[in-house]
Amino acid sequence: MCSRPPTLQYRPNEWEFTWRSRHVFSVQEDHTRNWTRGCALMALKPETIRAWLAFSQQRRPTSSSTNAPPVPSAEAERALSFHAVLDACTGETRSLIPIEPLVGFLRHPEAHCHLVRFPRASPWPRLSSKAYLLPAWHTEVWPHGRASAFLFDLGASLYNKGSGGASTKWFVDEYRARGIPFDRIYAWEATPHTDADIYGAMPDAIVDRIAYYNVPVDAAVGSKHNPWRTLRAVATPSDFVLVKIDIDNSTVEEALIAELLEDRALAGLVDELYFEHHVLHTPMWGYGWRFLTKTNHTLADSYDLFGRLREMGIRAHSWV
Asked: 113-161 pLDDT, tens per residue?
């Protein structure tokens, strides 16, 4: 009798396939302030964008939420990409886990192009909005009944605030509401903070669970503060592991992602990944990236990176 655990197969939708195979190579050459080519292509899909964002809103936990997320409508299903949970013995599809499609410049689909239509609007609400993201629910974590849940926050700032908004608190709250409370949290932050700043706003339950390293992340393989070294030391494939990478140091970030892509055993420990990949140009170039980014990576590289991670079974999201 076959008892092998299910496997994940990534299934991008047609919209994402078109962007990955064709559009991205055109728009990454568009250095105009209004991102003319990219916004024109996004404007072709208003109903698809509307269905995506509506479904993301429907998936948000509420006080009346059941223990399972809603099933997407036919319109939402066409707007989204999926990981298919396959029976490893028969190859049959057990279920589909939705994830936001890789389109545009990999943020909220209305982030920059909305500002082109309404130039007097503030840029930050949509540029930093997480409303396009589809975090996993506990019923979507395979195999079910994971032993422990870990959060690795690389570029954690402070628990309830940061330059781009709170990250640790956001992940704790969002995943707990979806039935995934974190047993342990590992956080790295290079900016020096006092103990009072670090722990003052943390609930007692978080203080009891967190290892907060107020030092820079080190991407050298096997180094003391390479988070992958710590991950290998504490987690097993039977645990749920969420990683966020946003340390505003492209050299270190790219090295960490390269190590993950090159090590199947390491990748097998990571279930969900959020990464703000700084690349050349894109609309973000006008909102600070030109001063933070030292890289040769392009938007096409970003599509390739996220696509490869998803194909390895990691729910990889483009972070803000």
From this structure: 886 777 766 767 788 999 999 999 999 987 666 789 999 999 999 999 9
Digit-coded pLDDT (tens) for 55-68: 999 999 986 666 78
User: To 5 degrees, how large is the angle CA 49–CA 52–CA 55?
Assistant: 145
Residue 67: Cβ within 10 Å count: 9
The candidate with the shortest Cα–Cα distance to 273, out of 28, 139, 83, 61, is 83
Cα–Cα dist 34/26, whole Å: 15
Q: Which helix (H) or strand (E) holds 176?
A: helix 168-177
Burial class (CB in 10 A: 0-12, 13-18, 19+), 267: middle
Can you give the residue ranges of every domain in the chain?
1-134
Give the C-alpha separation, 190 to 197, whole Å.
14
Read off the tokens for 15.
Answer: 């919209």
- What is d(CA 127, CA 111) in angstroms, rounded to the nearest whole number? 5
Average pLDDT value for the chain: 93
Tokens coding 284: 């973000």
Distance CA 289, CA 280 (A): 8
% of residues, the chain, pLDDT over 70 = 96
Nearest 10 degrees: Cα torsion 246, 308, 273, 14: 100
Q: What is the model's pTM? A: 0.95
CA angle 241, 246, 252 (to 5 degrees): 95
